[in-house]
Write a structure and sequence with these properties.
Blueprint: H1 8-15, E1 18-21, E2 26-31, H2 35-42, E3 56-61, E4 67-75, E5 79-84, H3 89-98, E6 107-110, E7 115-121, H4 125-131, E8 143-148, E9 151-159, E10 165-172, H5 176-185, E11 189-190, H6 193-203, H7 237-245, E12 251-258, E13 267-270, E14 273-284, E15 288-296, E16 305-310, E17 313-320
Parallel strand pairs: 1-11
Antiparallel strand pairs: 1-7, 2-5, 2-6, 3-4, 4-5, 7-10, 8-9, 9-10, 12-15, 12-17, 13-14, 13-16, 14-15, 16-17
Length: about 325
């Protein structure tokens, strides 16, 4: 087996508390009186859920319901803010602007240079916040407005990596260094990107450019909770509705435990037949080589033996059940 990956920050994420600045992320503002109706027509989730104290995750899909972009939405009174993953703000901005009709009273502005995003993870994060004077923390998708080290910050509850909840801090760019210093002084350790990816794969969380691509629909990639089955029409809605109504979700996001490391994109075989391909891969200190893949039914049940191509060889492995996942074959 390959050498297991470990670091002090990885251990801290499991046992204490860590932070990681999100590089190259985007912040788009959608303004004017038609902003809610406009975004409701474009996205999979229901904007009726959006409130000043509640964030909404959302997806832009193609006509065939394939994933194009994702973002987290915040109600900022005079505009709706879209927090966009690293490297995706330009394509998201182009998509939205290209879908504004001449009758729409909507404006989209890119203010990515004005804002910073910092993720906080770990089972002791709440205690560490308390040392900074933050005694109230949000639940999942909740938003609270507070101060940290004398600077205004929005804290959003997000799906946890090593505990039930993690937190996303949104603050002005000029406040970032002060807030990072305060986190360090309170005992948070900085998490590197490599360790973050290991934790993400351990937690079974999909990521843009890996599981979240135009190869898959939201229902196939673990984003069913970002799709409303009651809202009106949006691009791709008919395909998603058929997937739900007629049980046409033929692929699912799964985690693999492997005997050796393999290449990203390697084919996953079940009973000698291709069931999918590797979308994320890492070495976990706890689990050894692990991967995420989106596999076809009925070859995606937990415990199923798999083989993954590695040149002329094949690496053995098995499908693991993800946290919070029920068997779906």
């Amino acid at each position: 087996m390959a050498e297991l990956k470990s670091s002090p920050a990885y251990q801290a994420a499991q046992q204490n508390a860590v932070y990681i600045p999100r590089p190259n992320v985007g912040y788009l503002e959608v303004h004017s009186e038609d902003r809610v109706d406009f975004l409701q027509r474009q996205t999979t989730n229901d904007l009726g859920l959006l409130m000043p104290n509640r964030a909404v995750n959302n997806v832009l899909t193609s006509a065939t319901a394939r994933i194009l972009e994702i973002f987290l939405m915040l109600d900022r009174d005079e505009h709706i803010a879209l927090l966009v993953p690293p490297g995706r703000v330009d394509s998201t901005e182009v998509f939205l602007k290209s879908h504004i009709f001449f009758m729409d009273k909507v404006e989209v502005h890119n203010h990515s240079d004005d804002w910073s995003q910092i993720e906080v993870h770990g089972p002791e994060a709440v205690d560490r916040f308390g040392e900074l004077g933050i005694t109230q923390v949000p639940g999942l998708d909740e938003v609270i407005e507070t101060e940290l080290a004398g600077n205004a910050v929005s804290i959003i509850g997000i799906q946890g990596l090593t505990s039930e909840l993690s937190y996303l801090l949104l603050t002005s760019k000029h406040s970032e260094n002060t807030i990072l210093g305060a986190l360090q002084n309170a005992g948070f350790k900085e998490l590197e990107q490599d360790d973050y990816q290991v934790l993400r794969i351990e937690a079974g969380q999909p990521a843009m450019g890996h599981e979240l691509t135009p190869n898959y629909t939201p229902l196939e990639s673990g984003l069913a909770h970002w799709v409303s089955d009651t809202k009106g029409c949006y691009t791709g809605q008919e395909v998603i509705a058929r997937q739900i109504t007629y049980d046409k979700v033929t692929k699912n996001l799964i985690q693999l435990r492997l005997e050796q490391m393999v290449e990203l994109g390697a084919k996953v075989l079940v009973d000698g037949k291709t069931a999918g391909s590797i979308t994320s891969i890492a070495i976990s200190m706890k689990l050894g080589p692990i991967a995420l893949a989106v596999l076809k039914r009925p070859h995606n049940a937990p415990g199923t033996a798999v083989e993954v191509e590695k040149g002329e060889e094949r690496v053995s492995g098995s499908i693991a059940i993800l946290k919070g996942q029920t068997q779906n074959t």
